[in-house]
């Protein structure tokens, strides 16, 4: 992959695509843990859920 | 060297997105703590009064995290959420930058943040407004979560439809009308198809519900305004030669 992409480089390279997909998956996992987990994925029981409880309510996602 | 130098690599943009998201998340946390926490406290007081009245004291006797812990956790939640949204914004910017028909990187970054605010905050907010503690039936949480995620997807599709519709027109006024029409068609279909959820007890104070919902909207507004501005500022700053090596993927 060229070091610095200039405005003339065509489309998205496969390597960039896979990196981007991996990053998106990681970001969605973080969002899930913050906003939607009920203890099933984090394996922390409801600890993470309760810790970030107020954040869920005020960020506007369904909480309980 | 031109003013902005060569386009930044994905790695460079991603780091700036995460940093902008962290800043935005902490600012949103400050807003939520100052404006929102008093409403959450008031709602929890009502929740506990209801529990005592029905003789169900077990719920809060074995609480995992104290109220003070939850108020600290608020900042953890908004910071992590902000960083994740910053990472997604930087990725969207990298992938979509060339397709956005503006020569200004600042406008492109602010436009994407604005589209996200509209699609994943405002569209869901009007269909499923956020609720404070003491509102909501725990038995329906799965169904409510699925409906919420569905309206987020519909919000993003609506924004996309607005852009596609606008691009069919050349005149600026017609572009604005087409964008509005495309957006409203998708949102209306989504609002009609998805189930209505109203679990607010008749005894819950209306002014507290209103104030909580405004605080929640304000939290997201601070989040996305700060994220858009911080990312635009960081992403469009020229990279100095010696630092560019260290931030390239």
TrEMBL record, chain A:
<keyword id="KW-0472">Membrane</keyword>
<dbReference type="Pfam" id="PF09489">
    <property type="entry name" value="CbtB"/>
</dbReference>
<feature type="transmembrane region" description="Helical">
    <location>
        <begin position="16"/>
        <end position="36"/>
    </location>
</feature>
<keyword id="KW-0812">Transmembrane</keyword>
<keyword id="KW-1133">Transmembrane helix</keyword>
<protein>
    <recommendedName>
        <fullName>Cobalt transporter subunit CbtB</fullName>
    </recommendedName>
</protein>
<dbReference type="InterPro" id="IPR012667">
    <property type="entry name" value="CbtB_put"/>
</dbReference>
From TrEMBL, chain B:
<keyword id="KW-0472">Membrane</keyword>
<feature type="transmembrane region" description="Helical">
    <location>
        <begin position="176"/>
        <end position="194"/>
    </location>
</feature>
<keyword id="KW-1133">Transmembrane helix</keyword>
<protein>
    <submittedName>
        <fullName>Membrane protein</fullName>
    </submittedName>
</protein>
<feature type="transmembrane region" description="Helical">
    <location>
        <begin position="214"/>
        <end position="235"/>
    </location>
</feature>
<feature type="transmembrane region" description="Helical">
    <location>
        <begin position="12"/>
        <end position="33"/>
    </location>
</feature>
<keyword id="KW-0812">Transmembrane</keyword>
<feature type="transmembrane region" description="Helical">
    <location>
        <begin position="108"/>
        <end position="126"/>
    </location>
</feature>
<dbReference type="Pfam" id="PF09490">
    <property type="entry name" value="CbtA"/>
</dbReference>
<feature type="transmembrane region" description="Helical">
    <location>
        <begin position="146"/>
        <end position="164"/>
    </location>
</feature>
<feature type="transmembrane region" description="Helical">
    <location>
        <begin position="74"/>
        <end position="96"/>
    </location>
</feature>
<dbReference type="InterPro" id="IPR012666">
    <property type="entry name" value="CbtA_put"/>
</dbReference>
